[in-house]
Amino acid sequence: MASMVFMLLCGGQGKRLWPLSRKSKPKQLLQMISGKTLLENTIDRLVSFEDADIGLVTTKSYVQAIDTCLGDKVDFYVVEPCARNTAAAIALGVEQVLKSNDTDPVMVFLPSDHYIGDNQAFAQAIEVAIAHAKNHDDIVLVGIKPTYPATGYGYAATHQLDQADILKVIKFHEKPDLQTAENYLEHGNVFWNAGIFVARASVLHHAIKTNQPELHQSIFKYVHEMGDYQDVPALSFDRAVIEHCTNVSLVPGEFPWKDVGSIENFTELFVGAQKDASVFSHKGHSNIACSTKKMIVFLGVSDVCLVETDDVIVVMQRGQAEAMSDVVAHLEKGPMENLL
Questions:
Q1: So where are the chain's domains?
Q2: What is the pTM of this model?
Q3: Residues 212, 243: Cα–Cα separation, whole Å
Q4: Greatest CA separation found in the chain?
Q5: In this structure, which topology does domain 4-259 adopt according to CATH?
Q6: Using one digit for the tens of pLDDT, what is the confidence trace for 61-82?
Q7: What DSSP assignment string belongs to 19-49?
Q8: CA distance 8 to 111
């Protein structure tokens, strides 16, 4: 195995992206206007790292579809029997890399569903993070300057280190409430977490074992065929591990970025890439729509997001995207489960 390993997190169904994301076609396989999927775009951003291995963490139900999409662009898969959130996915990836490798490679965990508008600037930020991780016992994040008080992202408060391109994270807060997010925006030293984690495998292993011993033990048992993956706690890596770590640094990301994890964010990108005028808004403002077959007219309404598929139409007040998971949970319990 190479001394540097990129691990793509690719196991989520994307409930906040329903009805575009389905069990049969998860969010990472959604096709963008460019004709490529979110996952293919993520792989394309790694072409300059020729000496790195590329691994992918996903659930067994998605392996065939992902392999069909990517072919030989992935060096190896880490397969979860079922989805147990990002802490389990990262812990499993680390455990399997350490088990099969005598060295201590730098690992770069990346989401597979983010939009990044400048691949060169992205690569430069990752190179800085990797260089720091090689020589320090830190977990390095990539940070994005906030543009509004989002409650769906993690916030990293930082201060300057001796190196001009690396900041020390003095506090990390995953998904704060609106008031707290507004308070963070008043300070110039706060960044959104772009969901990227860079560290040597041993550093990540120690952070998980120290802060989440039950998770570490259950992953260890599973990897060594002594336990069931269903027994692994379902935890967010950001909240379960990063919030408790003191050895966290950050590289500012100087590139356009968007987490495409919600239906509103995806629709914003869809609208931004459209060349025609199939959405018309009259006596209203800030309306967006994702529809490939019909013209959409908004009349006398504002701040509305509309998404149309062959079998579902969603009309949503903008800013309510986080509640889409509640809609999916409702459908899971009723006769419309086939729409998932």
A1: 4-259, 263-339
A2: 0.90
A3: 12
A4: 65
A5: Spore Coat Polysaccharide Biosynthesis Protein SpsA; Chain A (3.90.550)
A6: 888 888 888 888 999 999 999 9
A7: TTSBTTB-GGG-B-TTSSBHHHHHHHTTTT-
A8: 6
